[in-house]
């Protein structure tokens, strides 16, 4: 059967089962974005499916599996690893219509959702119920819960609340053959054999499509204390983190570290930002602590910072006296959302190291990059409390060989320190060939065995996550 006849047959079968309201062929997709924010290429797919229910997702996958038709699931297309980019021979399956918030259970502290819902909508629904959904990242208004779970997203508050997988009690997913697995359980304790829930989370659409989830909600903090600190060296940064975790009764809910390269670039290029401190420093920390009573928590927070200032750990600090002040601090850190406009040809890294190694590893990367490509832009920042470092590199006139060389340099340093090539953005197609820097051959073999068992025809997100076998 020719490709043309095969394509016609698969589209006919899908349209007959789901209707032309769900199935949009290629000619109706020419204006649609087919790639995420990773910079990886994306072609207009054979068709786009926009199901409204788990049942329709199951029907679609059963048909695609029968025809051996590759399928790429898409959420908000905000990923940074190429996991949602499509090729011309693939079918895209978007969950954009599956955005219902089905239930908010304040007694169980859970929210049940379809996974096409945006992160921000879940946060708002939780807030209206007097609770909080702690997962948070800059793309909150566009990214979807399905994408967050599929990539096991991290974000700003991992240090206190954990990664995306730590927010999930139950989920429902559709396997490649159309089978529906999982359950929408609300129990924290559910020790019943193999954990299929966590197998799906972080699998980037290569093992199944997550369609619904029960998410954990947390008590909303009665107080939120925030400060922007200037510090003299990396040793002071790690000491501040340790002292805060020991002496603040609730620890820290965010601990964002920024090198001067990042702060200076943002203040100089993003309109409306202002410097929190009137003097420059070798390191900056945006620290947040959530507590109960507003007055007592704020006073304890200020007393702690005063002690750190007296001890020389902090050189200077600006303490937020209002939500507006805190918002102004966070806007500097969240200005990374402007990167696609400010630096469309950037080379971005999302890596992790042991906290003790981050200072040396970051300095080694910075010095090696600037020495190899003089005049390049190198910005460094990260979620220090969980070991996550972000590097943004821009080399004027960079071609593919330059990009490859930059990546080889940085990932080589990651391997040298025993770090991870992906802290929170996933592997996708962008990092699959360096996954072996972090995972042992036996681990890769186990991953391939799981893939073969759940998707024997390899239709789900082909070419993503697992490196090819040479």
Automatic annotation (TrEMBL):
InterPro entries in the record: FAD-bd_oxidored_4_C, FAD-bd_PCMH, FAD-bd_PCMH-like_sf, FAD-bd_PCMH_sub2, FAD-linked_Oxase-like_C, FAD-oxidored/transferase_4, Oxid_FAD_bind_N, Vanillyl_alc_oxidase_C-sub2
Xref: SUPFAM superfamilies: FAD-binding/transporter-associated domain-like (SSF56176), FAD-linked oxidases, C-terminal domain (SSF55103)
Alphabetized UniProt keyword annotations: FAD, Flavoprotein, Oxidoreductase
Record-level Gene Ontology MF annotations: FAD binding; oxidoreductase activity
Single GO biological process annotation from the record: respiratory electron transport chain
Cofactor requirements of the protein: FAD
Segments forming domain FAD-binding PCMH-type: 41-220
Family note: Belongs to the FAD-binding oxidoreductase/transferase type 4 family.
Official protein name in the record: FAD-binding protein
Lineage, top ranks: Bacteria, Pseudomonadati, Pseudomonadota, Betaproteobacteria, Burkholderiales
């Amino acid at each position: 059967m020719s490709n043309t006849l095969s394509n016609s047959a698969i589209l006919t079968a899908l349209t007959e089962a789901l209707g032309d309201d769900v199935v949009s062929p290629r000619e109706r997709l020419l204006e649609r974005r087919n790639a995420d924010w990773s910079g990886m290429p994306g072609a207009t797919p054979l068709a786009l499916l926009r199901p409204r229910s788990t049942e329709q997702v199951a029907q679609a996958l059963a048909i695609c599996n029968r025809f051996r038709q590759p399928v790429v699931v898409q959420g908000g297309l905000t990923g940074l690893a190429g996991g949602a980019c499509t090729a011309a021979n693939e079918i895209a399956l978007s969950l954009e219509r599956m955005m219902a918030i089905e239930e908010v259970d304040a007694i169980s502290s859970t929210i049940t959702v379809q996974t096409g819902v945006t992160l921000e909508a879940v946060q708002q629904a939780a807030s209206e119920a007097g609770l909080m959904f702690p997962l948070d990242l800059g793309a909150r208004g566009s990214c979807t819960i399905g994408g967050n779970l599929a990539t096991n997203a991290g974000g700003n508050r991992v240090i206190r609340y954990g990664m995306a997988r730590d927010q999930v009690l139950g989920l429902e997913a559709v396997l490649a053959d159309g089978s529906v697995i999982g359950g929408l359980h609300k129990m924290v304790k559910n020790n019943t054999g193999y954990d299929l829930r966590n197998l799906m989370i972080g699998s980037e659409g290569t093992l199944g499509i997550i369609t619904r989830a029960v998410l954990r909600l947390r008590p909303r903090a009665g107080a939120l204390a925030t400060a922007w600190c200037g510090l003299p060296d990396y040793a002071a940064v790690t000491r501040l983190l340790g002292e805060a975790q020991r002496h603040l009764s609730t620890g820290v809910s965010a601990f964002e570290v920024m090198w001067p390269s990042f702060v200076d670039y943002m203040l100089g290029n993003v309109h409306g930002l202002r410097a929190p401190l009137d003097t420059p420093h070798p390191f900056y920390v945006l620290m947040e602590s959530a507590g109960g009573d507003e007055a007592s928590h704020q006073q304890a927070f200020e007393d702690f910072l005063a002690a750190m200032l007296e001890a020389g750990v902090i050189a200077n600090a600006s303490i937020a006296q209002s939500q507006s002040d805190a918002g102004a601090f966070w806007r500097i850190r969240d200005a990374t959302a402007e990167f696609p406009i400010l630096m469309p040809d950037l080379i971005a890294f999302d890596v992790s190291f042991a906290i003790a190694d981050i200072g040396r590893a970051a300095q080694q990367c910075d010095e090696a990059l600037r020495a190899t490509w003089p005049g390049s832009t190198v910005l460094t920042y990260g979620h220090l409390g969980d070991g996550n470092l972000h590097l943004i590199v821009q080399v004027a006139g960079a071609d593919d060989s330059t990009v490859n060389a930059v990546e080889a340099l940085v990932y080589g340093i990651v391997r040298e320190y025993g770090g991870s090539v992906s802290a929170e953005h996933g592997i996708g197609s962008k990092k699959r060939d360096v996954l072996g820097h972090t995972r042992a051959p036996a681990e890769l073999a186990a991953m391939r065995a799981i893939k073969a068992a759940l998707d024997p025809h390899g239709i789900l997100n082909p070419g993503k996550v697992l490196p090819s076998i040479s």
